[in-house]
Automatic annotation (TrEMBL):
Residues 160-328 form the OBG-type G domain. This is GTPase Obg. Gene3D superfamilies: GTP1/OBG domain, P-loop containing nucleotide triphosphate hydrolases. It comes from Lentisphaera araneosa HTCC2155. An essential GTPase which binds GTP, GDP and possibly (p)ppGpp with moderate affinity, with high nucleotide exchange rates and a fairly low GTP hydrolysis rate. Plays a role in control of the cell cycle, stress response, ribosome biogenesis and in those bacteria that undergo differentiation, in morphogenesis control. Pfam families: GTP1_OBG, MMR_HSR1. HAMAP family: GTPase_Obg (MF_01454). PROSITE patterns: G_OBG, OBG. Its EC number is 3.6.5.-.
Amino acid sequence: MFVDRIKVYVKAGNGGNGCISFRREKYVPKGGPNGGNGGDGGSVIFVADPGTSSLVDLKFNQHIDAEHGGHGLGSDMHGNRGEDLYVKVPPGTVVMDINNDNYQICDLDEPESEIVIAQGGKGGRGNRSFATSINRVPRQAEEGYPGEELVLLLELKTIADVGLVGYPNAGKSTFLNSVSNSGAKTASYPFTTLNPIVGTIDFPDFTRITIADIPGLVEGAHENIGLGHHFLRHIERTNNLVYVLDMNGTDGRDPLDDLVKLKEELELYEEGLSDRACMILANKMDNPASEENLERLRKETDLTIFPVIAELRDGVDEVLEFLHKRVMELKKSKVKHVPKLKNIYRKEGAVVVDLEADGDDFALSSDDDFDFDVEDLDYDDFYDDIDEDEV
């Protein structure tokens, strides 16, 4: 079962209550207060786990609760801290707050990245903490603070090096099966693939690329016709798009017309999305009509065209060589990921300040209108979670 969109309820642990207690021992008539503090509640932390490919685990566990902190006890014994709850989600998961107009809390697009989604409540103070020179017998203690609770919408956007885009029954799944062990379902009817499937191809130089088989698009997909948005969001992160065309013209389709409409659908969904196309996979080149359509196609586009018969694996090796070279070049040109800073959940009305690397220096930026004095900031807070070896 593949699940790429789900609603979950998240509750961090409450802090434990402080204790009111006094030392009572023989020969110690006025031992004083010794009530311990309550323990902090556990937090809920989302982790982008490369070994997880779907949100299906959360479908059967939509209430996520972290452990509460323990209550304080006498003899200055503090309560146990609630254990943090780590929730594994696939890389590419977007987390939104439903009760805050679907505000995007975070985008876990980096493998192994993590964020504290709900902070555990702080434990209450015991009466020992209230003792002063004036109030030597405090009879008050604090209750623990409640942990944060949220109703979240999780949405998965598939991360792959290459995305196959085409109309239903163009042969995308057949091509993916011919180059990987993805096991994508193939049949002679449209919409055989109902969920994105990612195949992995390993090369002799010990590098690998991932190719996503995106379910077939239909006209009007940008308007959410035929589950359009459900399909299209899975190619938002893909830097290399491959148009897969049926050169046979099955069911009276024209491959040139298909190419034009595919470009239009991508542009209408997100401006500039069609610019990511790197090549055309001219599939089903097994009859004379296909050759005629190929000649027409070459006159109408500047994109690199690879004629193939995916079912027979004819011409597939040249395609893989081209994609491998392109993906590796893009990966080399990518800026290295800067050290991760502590992720902090943004409260409503708060200001988010981004710390960005600028050579050997760091710069502050924000999308919000605010005024502050940079010299008044405590930069030590920003570097709490940075490994010294990475700076």
